[in-house]
Amino acid sequence: MDQTKILLDENEMPTQWYNILSDIKVEPPLNPATNEPMDPKDLEPIFAKELIKQEISSEKYIDIPKDILEIYALWRPSPLYRAHRLEKALGTPAKIYYKNESVSPAGSHKPNTAIAQAYYNMKEGTERITTETGAGQWGSSLSLCCNYFDMECKVYMVSSSFYQKPYRKSLINLWGATVIPSPSTETQFGRKIREMYPDTTGSLGIAISEAIEEAALNDNTKYALGSVLNHTSLHQTVVGLETQAQFDKTEDYPDIVIGCCGGGSNLAGVALPYIRDNLAGKTDTRFIAVEPSACPTLTSGEFKYDFGDMAQQTPLLKMYTLGSEFIPPAIHAGGLRYHGVSPIISKLVSDGIMEATSYHQVEVFDAAVAFARSEGIAPAPESAHAIKSAIDEALKCKETGEEKTILFNLSGHGHFDMASYDKYFSGELSND
Ligand SMILES: *Cc1c(COP(=O)(O)O)cnc(C)c1O
Prior knowledge:
This protein is about 40% helix and about 15% strand. By secondary structure, it is α/β, with parallel strands linked by helices.
């Protein structure tokens, strides 16, 4: 039988990240006060200098520091799986592979960048990092990674998730960070929003504004963002680079690469190294970004300059956006509820290098259950969007008889999402 798990040794782990900005150009961030390209120095009160450097670097490969490699080695290289049992259940001639990023301590791909961001901040003397979290995955990842370097971490958690996902909150506390519901009374912006919208359940845009406000006002404090920005995509390329080394140990090469897309970082992670090979004329792989119909940034948004947060404090980014005031419905894939998306992914979609598609949440949970009942792993609702698309592509192959190789990124597990699964099973899950 063909292999089920394709593993790498620790010493086969990539030692550099791939920077796609060496191969494609994205429009620069603009200073909202002047509408001119941002001076990188203006970002220094908020971000570590090395991260700002990486954000605008056009160097093709950036060395991964040894201290980061040592932490990566706690769960990396992550396994690549061939989904034999899912293929059989679908009766498809397609080969389905998935990269399992759920094996990190936080249960998702997010620590790949959290550890890098914590490390560079520690190096530059930052004592405390503030951030926001939607579903709690980023907050728990940053909490985990600040703890490795004895730094404080404070998380503004979107209030709807704070109450719906109490165990993500517990995990954030377990690794030593503080977490409070947003909008909070601890920032000027939070107080203003609570006054204007007393019933609001919060949004990522609001929580980002709160976390940035606190970092901007304190010298020892910096801010970290879990997705969207170029440096988060850069750090995630360890996922795709490992996957390529793993495929080298098989007879296959992916014809289609799929990832769910919230801010775009796990998709960038798995896809960018393959896009590098397409751009070099070596391959002709298809790429699919999958988003929820309830927050259809790439499939219905506009490609234009917009703010990253609701208080309109951030630089303007050229991206697909639903508008910085958009508050998406409280769907269960909380990690995919963001009004914007990474400028890199936006550019790739706009240039026709990547496709985008969207699904409703009930059909996404149908796919999650099919996956759990064949492969065993309970996927995060976010990752289930990628599974749904992979299943659809595999079913197309069943019709045409094509033996395509399909790869998707299993961005995380759903162990903290059981309340959503319960709702699905009791028929309470709606499609809007
Ligand atoms: C945060 C998260 C996502 C969405 O973020 P991206 O930056 O689009 O990857 C997807 N899956 C999981 C499991 C997440 O935690």
